[in-house]
Specification:
alpha/beta; Aspartate Aminotransferase, domain 1; 2 domains; seven-stranded mixed β-sheet; binds pyridoxal-5'-phosphate; aminotransferase
Length: 458
């Protein structure tokens, strides 16, 4: 561990030179940044020697946990053989081809072709370009509108922020990309209007049909959604929602795009969230869990309908990145998929550790006075913090951040999304580790409760 003086020097240098993403730099610098020094399994350690359970798997990505030697070795070996080569000019290399084939095998339906990028945002940008190009090739250049949901997260490039439904992002980067419309999210608990979850799911899905009719069915290229909205606070849709969305898309010939950046690679107990929720996307973006976050890589899996059209038309698809299909990242992703498959990790998320995690959360925290509602499936969960459980009254103060800080103090990395606490631990977490995570969260909730109980106007 570096000594205290070196620590301070680093903090100081970070404050002077490093602009952090999604960060209030002024607030950060006055408080001082936390340095994460190393990690193993589900744990990370900070430079002060505190051990924390990483209840977020980094940023929803370290699905296999930290320190997996096979992933490290895959990168090391590939670095020695071929550290870089591009895939632009009629060339390929073994890891990217093998990875494309592996993704085609694990994705459902006819998602048989794969386009590579380096981040979720780039994958989203790729999807937008591809579907708009598709409709031009189909002789319907007027079909260019995209429909997404409020509070959705689709990355932070201009296209991602425009497509996403995060008002606080959009207000900083306008004018936004034109041709994008939003409908409301399927957040049943947050909208207490007395109807059943199933009915609510249908109602919210039908807002898609209303929107399509409003803007003109012939003008709509695609609808996009995360199977479970992640950064929006882990909004788990009612079971009725996605099948109805799919029915409406098919009825109006609107392409269905799934943003699987968080749900993909086992998070919900299937390879992809769209499988868990029973719909078949025409095109799908993935990133995060694709390499367990060990190296940046993302991909777009493209259904035959779109890919065959692109290919049959001839001519170049004028899009790509210097690092599309980077060999080292591809080698790591391939090994990541092999481990998920050979160790039957996703099966365990569906049948063992996922249900255990969901049950423990509900058993231990379900009746907590701050906890209004717990939703989740597999190893993803969101917990609504409320002032009044009976009448579903939320706090009008930022209790999420308060609780998040109490989690950190208890040795748990959790995340606050407004008035929701979200969790997404590594898929390899054990039962004993789940127990420990839930205990730490309960301590944090107790202390948060003690702090807000005395608050006025909360
Ligand atoms: C994180 C995320 C993205 C953006 O991925 P980056 O790699 O951060 O660009 C896009 N969509 C969803 C659903 C995400 O969670």
């Amino acid at each position: 561990m570096p000594n205290a003086e070196a620590q301070l020097a680093m903090r100081d240098a970070d404050a002077r030179h490093h602009l952090h993403p999604f960060t209030d730099t002024q607030a950060l610098n006055s408080k001082g940044v936390r340095t994460i020094s190393h990690a193993q399994g589900i744990y990370v350690w900070d430079s002060e020697g505190n051990q924390l359970i990483d209840g977020m798997a980094g940023l929803w990505c370290v699905n296999l946990g930290y320190g997996r030697k096979e992933l490290i070795d895959a990168a090391h070996q590939q670095m020695q053989v071929l550290p870089y080569y591009n895939t632009f000019f009629q060339s390929t290399h073994a890891p990217v081809t093998a990875l494309a084939q592996a993704i085609a095998e694990i994705t459902p339906g006819d998602l048989n072709r794969v386009f590579f990028a380096n981040s979720g945002s780039e994958a989203i940008d790729t999807v937008i370009r591809m579907v708009r190009h598709y409709w031009t090739l189909k002789g319907k250049p007027y079909r260019k509108l995209l429909i997404a949901r409020e509070n959705a997260y689709h990355g932070s490039t201009l296209a991602g922020a425009s497509l996403g439904g995060m008002a606080h992002m959009q207000s900083q980067c306008g004018p936004l990309l034109p041709g994008i419309h939003h409908i409301r999210q399927p957040y049943w608990y947050g909208d207490p209007n007395g109807i059943s979850e199933d009915e609510f799911g249908l109602q919210r899905a039908r807002e898609l049909e209303e929107k399509i009719l409003e803007v003109g069915p012939d003008n709509v290229a695609a609808f996009i959604g995360e199977p479970i909205q992640g950064a929006g606070g882990v909004i788990v849709p009612p079971r009725t929602y996605w099948p109805e969305i799919q029915r409406i898309c098919r009825k109006y010939d609107v392409l269905l795009m799934a943003d699987e950046v968080i749900c993909g690679f086992g998070r919900t107990g299937q390879w992809f969230g769209s499988q868990t929720y029973g719909f078949q996307p025409d095109i799908m973006s993935m990133a995060k869990g694709l390499s367990s976050g060990y190296l940046p890589i993302s991909a777009v899996a493209v259904g035959d309908r779109i890919a065959d059209t692109l290919i049959a038309a001839g001519g170049e698809f004028t899009h790509g990145f210097t690092y599309s299909g980077h060999p080292v990242a591809a080698a790591v992703a391939l090994e990541n998929i092999r481990i998920l498959r050979d160790e039957r990790i996703i099966d365990a998320v569906a049948k063992d550790i996922g249900p255990y995690f969901q049950n423990r959360l509900r058993e231990v925290l379900g009746e907590h006075p701050l906890c209004g509602h717990i939703e989740g499936i597999g190893l993803i969960a969101g917990l609504a913090l409320v002032k009044d459980r009976q009448s579903r009254i939320f706090f009008d103060k930022d209790i999420g951040t308060l609780c998040r800080d109490e989690c950190t103090a208890s040795g748990l990395v959790a995340r606050a999304c407004g008035n929701r606490i979200v969790l997404s631990p590594p898929l390899v977490i054990s039962r004993a580790e789940v127990d420990e995570l839930v205990n730490r969260l309960r301590e944090a909730l107790d202390r948060t409760y003690a702090r807000v109980a005395g608050m006025t106007g909360a």
